[in-house]
Every structure is written in C-alpha cells, then in structure tokens.
Design brief:
Length: 75
Amino acid sequence: METIRILLERCTDCGCCIEVCPSDALAREGGAVILAHPEDCGGCGQCELICPEDAIEVSFSIVWDNEPTREQGEG
Ligand code: SF4
Ligand code: SF4
C-alpha cells in the first residue's frame, strides 16, 4: 500500500507532478498540491522523481499474506 507525503513548505506549485501523474490523482487546491484521488494512485513514484523541490515522498508498506498458497500447501 502506497503513501504519498507532500511537503507543502517546499512546494512551489510548479505543477510538474500533476502533469506527469498517469492517474490524474493529484490536483491543486488552495495554492498547493494535494492527493485528490488516492484511490487512483498506482504508486508509480513519477511525481516524486520529477519534483524539483523534493517535496513529494512516495513510500510503500508491504502487507504479508501468510496464508499458504495451494502450491505451498502441497507436497
Ligand atoms: S512537482 Fe513538487 S514543487 Fe512542483 S507542484 Fe508538485 S510538489 Fe509542488
Ligand atoms: S505515485 Fe504515480 S500515480 Fe501516485 S500520485 Fe504520484 S505520479 Fe500519480
């Protein structure tokens, strides 16, 4: 599961992240960028890469499914 952190004090509102986002998940609101549609974010990290101010951090947390698969359970 991805988490997007936008450091508003660094954001210059250049709009690069909004343009590069393939999911249209980011938007401007009140002079700042927000993750307007978190359900659409695929966690690609392009916004973090393109931001010239290092204002975006994309992080991931892995949720382990410990249920054995059919293949693991056999043999
Ligand atoms: S690319 Fe960075 S500086 Fe530009 S609008 Fe997005 S968060 Fe702000
Ligand atoms: S991680 Fe990718 S999909 Fe999510 S907001 Fe950034 S550019 Fe858009």
